[in-house]
Write a sequence for this structure.
């Protein structure tokens, strides 16, 4: 096996982890369809399903971001999703509308975050594949 073949098949831990996460983010991005079911289904059922999906997916997403060493993405997630969730749990608001908005804010930011991070990961994976292809072509040209 020559060096070009090894380079073509080499995948870093970062790329592997991000590829796995990107695969599942494609499904997670489309959860808004379930969220739009609030118009036809009771709010409590839709809210519970969307919340459970977010709770189950969060550790998986954070683990893969940690493996890929995307620490800024983890800090951003904690500051825009987890911090508002804890603030909502600590602060008791008498106004029901404000309480509702504080309760929904972490879910909205979670799904917005998954949409944005999916785009960023897709772009990064595309860049890594392009660089690897260029390196493979360069090695093929120098071997000739």
């Amino acid at each position: 096996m020559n060096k070009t073949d090894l380079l073509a098949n080499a995948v870093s831990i970062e790329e592997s982890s991000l590829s796995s996460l990107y695969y599942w983010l494609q499904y997670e991005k489309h959860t808004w369809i379930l969220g739009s079911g609030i118009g036809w289904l009771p709010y409590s059922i839709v809210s519970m399903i969307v919340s459970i999906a977010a709770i189950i997916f969060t550790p998986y997403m954070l683990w893969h971001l940690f493996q890929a060493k995307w620490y800024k993405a983890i800090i951003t997630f904690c500051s825009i999703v987890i911090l508002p969730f804890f603030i909502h749990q600590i602060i008791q608001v008498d106004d029901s509308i404000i309480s509702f908005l504080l309760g929904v804010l972490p879910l909205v930011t979670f799904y917005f975050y998954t949409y944005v991070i999916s785009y960023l990961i897709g772009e990064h994976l595309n860049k890594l594949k392009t660089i690897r292809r260029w390196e493979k072509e360069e090695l093929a040209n120098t071997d000739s």
